[in-house]
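Annotated sample (chain length 162).
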Amino acid sequence: MDWEPVLEIAVGLLAAYAFLLACLAVYARRHPDVISLRDALRLGPDLVGLIRRLAADRSVPVRTRVLLGLLAVYLVVPIDLVPDFLPVIGYADDVVVIAVTLRAVVRTAGPEALARHWKGSDAGLRAVRALAGVREPGADGTDGTGSDDGTDGAGGAGRNTA
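Output written by the structure step:
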């Protein structure tokens, strides 16, 4: 077996991860009130764990678990909507796909599933909630789902968390 393509992919993934860590580190240093450097560096692995735990949870609807599996495949496969070798914008599509998927997951599984499966820091959970479009519970007098009528924000037929 020719190991050169495997090595190239591994080096590319390592370089991409190092680039993202550097970007997170710069952001955390400039905005320490939002997220600490340590929390920012842990966000990637914590997010992967969250996706894995949500996909394995039998209480999460099958459609949502399939969506999480497709997200994992999209992130692993080297073919993207925008090639990753393009500076900054190459990874922007990954962030958008993650955000859209997390929003869909929260709408079907509920924000309590997000909180239940999050094993990272509180600041990391706040960042993931923001990425998923979930308000902090009790921050504005609502239930944290983005809806103030006690539903899941997806048209009224959701679970009541109030």
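Annotation: The first helix runs from residue 4 to 30.
Annotation: DSSP finds six helices and no strands in the chain.
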